[in-house]
Amino acid sequence: MPPVFAVPSPDACPVHAVASDTFESWLSGQPQRVQAWAKAHGFTGACGQALAVPGAYGTIEMALAGYGSAAQRARRRFVLAEAAQKLPAGSYRIASGLPAGAAATESLGWLLTAYRFDRYKEAKGEAAALEAPEGVDAAAIESLAAAECLTRDLINTPASDMGPEQLQAAAAALAEEFGAEISTILGEDLLAQNFPLIHTVGRASDRAPRLIDLRWGSSGPKLTLVGKGVCFDTGGLNLKPGNSMALMKKDMGGAANVLGLARMIMAAGLDLQLRVLIPAVENSVSGPAFRPGDVLTSRKGLTVEVNNTDAEGRLVLADALALAAEETPDLLISMATLTGAARVAVGPDLSPFYTDHDTDAAALSATASRTADPVWRMPFHDPYETMIEPGIADLDNAPSGGFAGSITAALFLRRFAGETRYMHFDIYGWTPSAAPARPKGGALQGARALFAALPDMLEL
């Protein structure tokens, strides 16, 4: 179950968020026994510190949470979450010290400390529960937490239990929850309905490729989300080495992220027409596998020379983007765990995005900072278009040389979005090292920032 706020109770333990630069003045106003306890335990208000202060009968009278300095906070997404993870199980309420503008983000971080991926083993330990801070929209924060947990669960599930069929089932469950419509084009029907690239990438697996199509809403601007749903990527005939294949259960992270974003949108009841397209495949090795050197014809009619079967994500996205563009939505967004080049450029925490629209980029950058969901704009650098144009086909799926790999992949996808207003995210979808409220494993990236920016981007 996704984490929720604790039911308000007069017995909830008060938490005082104390910044390191104001700690001494705050402490001087406390009873002598509180001063002595804090000093005895070395509490200084540094980020990550947590201290339970006992009352007269051994119960916890109050809790102190280090809020650090401005410099320390700038290096963290969720400051209170670090302290929350160290507090004993129980119910807590924020009593003082938390800036009003930080309440929503910090309470979301606190909720996310309760996330556990417990499908395969019993979760250990209970999290400290938080009452919703005054002035915070509790339902909205809980909805964000639920979306994040959905995305994490989908990515964390191994490919043995999260193939194209199971990804379709997850989308269907989400559609049922919010009254959306869903349809699927499966297997050989992909060829009959002109989705040749999706079929080609998935045909070597005994788990049939498919295109999942979810629709919700009947009024307002049209928003289409396209998520890469490669449920496992062996690399195909350009087989990945073992260490590169180890995390390929997360190669459907783009699909998981657009489903998380779709959940936020539907739960909030935004006045828009939402469409979610997920090409769901497994890139496997068998006799029917597509080959390096093959030339494929896409739904749009553009031909693609395959120079690396491990650059399959852009192929399945191409057909889905072409379909999306046929409806000319007001905004088209793709999310994909697409290139290692993006990780080299910005690391695992930032979500690189591409857009030709400066106003969209500005709106997204503004919301990213306040939602603790960092993004970074990358360029659709037109002079690199020649790098994706081989000699014998319209496009090259894996330009040689290795330069600007994320940019050339984004330029490839833009060809299929056509004239539609388009934004692309080349995300990692994974937290490689545990951090407060962000355990090692699947991650939602860019979706919260997008959700917050959509009212400005679509004038809702």
UniProtKB/TrEMBL annotation:
It comes from Leisingera caerulea (Phaeobacter caeruleus). Belongs to the peptidase M17 family. Pfam families: Peptidase_M17, Peptidase_M17_N_1. Signal peptide: none annotated. This is Leucyl aminopeptidase family protein. Keywords: Aminopeptidase, Hydrolase, Manganese, Protease. The keyword Hydrolase applies. InterPro entries: Leucine_aapep/pepB, Macro_dom-like, Peptidase_M17_C, Peptidase_M17_N_1. The keyword Protease applies. CDD domains: Peptidase_M17. Gene3D superfamilies: Leucine Aminopeptidase, subunit E, domain 1, Zn peptidases. One of its GO terms (molecular function) is aminopeptidase activity. It comes from the Bacteria.
